[in-house]
Amino acid sequence: MAGFVLKLKTKSGQMVVKGLNSKSTIADLKTTLSSLTNIKENCLHVLSGFPPKPLNLSPDEASLETCKITSGDTLIVEEKEPPIESVSFSTSLQEEARHHIITDQFASPGILMKKVVPADNSCLFTSLGFVLGGKVDLTCASFMRQIIAEVVATEIDNYSEAILGKPNTEYCQWILKPDSWGGAIELAVLSNFYGLEIAVVDTLNAIINRFGEDQNFAQRVFLMFDGIHYDPLYLEPLEGGSIQTIFLASDQRVLNEAYDIAKEAKSSRQFTDVDKFTLRCMVCSVFLTGQIQAQQHAKESGHMNFGEIK
C-alpha cells in the first residue's frame, strides 16, 4: 500500500497526509485528521469528491476503500459543533462550543485576486466550486442546483411563494435548468449546506453581503459580484506556494482587504448597472436595455444567449 497519499485543505492551509492506506478505517482517518488539525474527532466535518460533499464518518470500522477514498483525493476539513448529546447543557460550555475557531491560524501575507470563470449562467456555482475545490469545474453546477432544489422542496414553510417569487414547485423546476441564474436564495442555501460563510463582494454598491454570517461558521470564502456575474477570490501568497481560498471567519485582515476591493472596483466602475446596461440577443440580434427587458425577452422568445454592448 506504499504511496497512498491524501491532500488536505484546512482553514490554515494545505498539507499532505501519509501513513494511511486503502484498508485503513474511518477511525484511523479521524485520528489522523484530528492530530493534524487539532480538531476533536467529534467536531470533524470532512468534504470529499468534486463538487465537495460531506463524508460520512461512520461507522468507524468502514475502510477508506469502501468509502471510495483513494490515493490522491483531496479532503476539506472543517470544525463544527459536536452533536448536541456530547455538549453540556451548561450555558458557558454551550458558548464555548459556538466559539471553536483556532484564532492563531490566519491567512499568510498575500494578495486577494480574482479568478475569472465562464459567464454561462452558472457562474455562481462554478465560483463556489472553485473556492471549495481549488479548480474551475463546470460540472459542479448541476450538483449544487440539485441540492438547492431538494432543500427548497423539503422546507416549504421557509421557502414560500412570497420568498421565491414563484410557487415552490415551479421554483424547484426552474433552478435545475442550466440557464437559470443563482442569487441570494441560492447562496443562503449553499452556505448552510457547506457550513461556511459566503462573503459576496458587491462592486456595484461597494459592500460585502455575508451569507451565513449569523450561523457562527468557522470558515469564510469570498466571491465577487459585478451586478450580473460572479467570480471567486483567492489569496496569492507573497512568498509563493499554494493559493488559499478558505479563510477563518475571524480573520478581519482578509475581510478588510475584500472591502478595499469592493470600494476600488466601484470607484473604477468595475460593475454592471443591471437597470441601464445594453444587451444584444445573440440569437435574433434585438437590442435590450436592462435586466428586466432581457428576462422578458427570454421568457417570450426562449432565447437565452445575450452579449453586453459597451
In short:
This protein has 310 residues and is α+β, with helices and mostly antiparallel strands. It has nine helices and 14 strands. It has three domains: 6-98, Phosphatidylinositol 3-kinase Catalytic Subunit, Chain A, domain 1 (Ubiquitin-like (UB roll), Roll); 110-267, Cathepsin B, Chain A (Alpha-Beta Complex), CATH 3.90.70; 278-309, no CATH class.
* Fraction of residues in β-strands: 15-25%
Tally of structural domains? 3
Largest sheet: 6 strands, mixed
What's the number of extended β-strand segments?
Answer: 14
Order of helices and strands: EEHEEEHEHHHHHEEEEEHEEHE
CATH class of the largest domain: Alpha Beta
The radius of gyration over CA amounts to: 21 Å
CATH topology label of the largest domain: Cathepsin B, Chain A
Shape: globular
Mean pLDDT: 79
Query: Helix proportion of residues, in percent?
Result: 25-40%
pLDDT below 50 for ≥5 consecutive residues: which ranges?
A: 83-105, 270-275
Number of separate helices: 9
CATH architecture of the largest domain: Alpha-Beta Complex
* Main structural class: alpha+beta
Which assembly state applies to the chains in this document? single chain
End-to-end distance, in Å? 58 Å
Q: Any key phrases for this structure?
A:
310 residues, alpha+beta, Ubiquitin-like (UB roll), Cathepsin B, Chain A, 3 domains, 6-stranded mixed β-sheet, 5-stranded mixed β-sheet, 14 strands, 31% helix, globular, thiol protease, zinc
